[in-house]
Amino acid sequence: MATICRVFAVWITLSVAYLMHELQASSSATSSQQDANLQGVEPEPEFEGTIANVTFPAGREALLTCSVKNLGRYKVGWLRASDQTVLALQGRVVTHNNRISVVHEDMHTWRLRIKQIRESDKGCYMCQINSSPMKKQIGCIDVQVPPDIINEESSADIAVQEGEDASLTCRATGNPIPRVTWRREDGEMILIRKAGSREVSKADSYNGTSLKLSRLERRQMGAYFCIASNDVPPAVSKRVSLSVHFAPSVRAPSQLLGAPLGSDVQLECQVEASPAPVSYWLKGGRMPPNGFTGSTTSLESGQPRPEMLLDGPKYGITEQRSGYRGVMRLVVRAFSHTDVGTYHCVSTNSLGRAEGTLRLYEIKIHPGSVASEDEQANFIGGLAEAARGRGNSSANLPQMMISNTTFLLMTTLWMYAASSLFSVTTTFTSLRILQS
Ligand SMILES: *[C@@H]1O[C@H](CO)[C@@H](O)[C@H](O)[C@H]1NC(C)=O
Ligand SMILES: *[C@@H]1O[C@H](CO)[C@@H](O)[C@H](O)[C@H]1NC(C)=O
Ligand SMILES: *[C@@H]1O[C@H](CO)[C@@H](O)[C@H](O)[C@H]1NC(C)=O
Ligand SMILES: *[C@@H]1O[C@H](CO)[C@@H](O)[C@H](O)[C@H]1NC(C)=O
């Protein structure tokens, strides 16, 4: 025990002597290091400034700069802040990531460089000095990512029945979080009906991930685009086609057509249907299936069975379609007695069938002579009145009409003021008129 104490005392004495010697030595050191050396330690390493946070677009190179002075025998390391993984020590990269390197410049700057940055590189990085206590500084990298639309989580083309609801969704990723805007491909307005309300608002665009359309109308059918954009180009878009399905409806603007023999007569029906209908023309005394089966008139008696009309020398059949709207046209060439009768334009699709009925009759014309008062009233009707008022020469009228090869005369006398009536009503009216 005594021996140990003696040894310890000798060691203390020697240590103190050594320290005294050191102090004397340091007091003669250069003036610049005087302060530190007076305390008997090396100058403390410290950071120069702070690390600037940076934002880079994905794919570029990111740099974080750490400046240290008085590093001395200490070392500078770079760590990932989230999991404290050591990335580099001094200039040596210790992580297995060949996109990472450290650039050592002008003795006291250590730059962490990450090439082709990805979204996974986003986060904070720590510049650390292994002094005691340890010193650290943090800098963060934000990675800008252009928008992308996740197809699996976004709407595909969609078909719904009229009156049902639909929701069009576009899920987009990116940094910053992209905003999603909806537009119609045809530039038409987007109609948004507030839930539980009859109110409909119109806008040329809609902002939001989900475009909710309730109680769809046919006019809302079309292609919609969602456009995802943030500050990082390019913006991306996706096309979503919305089909609204409904049974056909048919409207014949002129249901009674008079024509002189020998002329070409054009019959026309306007059709609305989705999906696209199959349309055709029938001739004959056929009643619509939802039917009025009243007595046949003299016009129909010769044609008990309907005849399907085919495009050819006698009949010119065309159909124009634009979206869910279409126009069916039938031209009866060289109008003769046998062409007098009832014609039906029929349109069917998977949801139903509709039919328009038109009647074609002969106008007797005596060229060069004044038509009798009766004929004026019966066949030419309102048109004759109009012509008489304007030109004051009713005899000119028939000649004028004959000169036109496509002869189409609407007997306004029998027309409904509102022409937006469908086939059933039309047939009904026509019959009543004929019977009266
Ligand atoms: C960098 O971002 C981090 C985290 O958002 C923050 O704590 C730090 O103060 C920022 N540094 C600078 C220099 O703005
Ligand atoms: C949608 O957002 C853009 C940009 O934030 C804005 O200019 C536009 O007016 C918004 N549109 C609607 C319909 O809210
Ligand atoms: C139209 O004819 C009637 C008789 O035929 C005549 O009384 C009238 O003056 C004529 N009007 C015009 C504008 O020529
Ligand atoms: C016949 O009338 C139609 C309009 O109803 C017109 O487009 C056409 O050019 C006319 N034809 C002739 C030969 O005058």
From TrEMBL:
This is Putative lachesin-like protein. It is found in: Cell membrane. Keywords: Cell membrane, Disulfide bond, Glycoprotein, Immunoglobulin domain, Membrane, Repeat, Signal, Transmembrane, Transmembrane helix. Residues 1-17 form the signal peptide. Residues 45-139, 147-243, 248-359 form the Ig-like domain. It comes from the Eukaryota. GO terms for cellular component: neuron projection; plasma membrane. Gene3D superfamilies: Immunoglobulins. InterPro entries: Ig-like_dom, Ig-like_dom_sf, Ig-like_fold, Ig_I-set, Ig_sub, Ig_sub2, Ig_V-set, Neural/epithelial_adhesion. The chain crosses the membrane at residues 413-434. Pfam families: I-set, Ig_3.
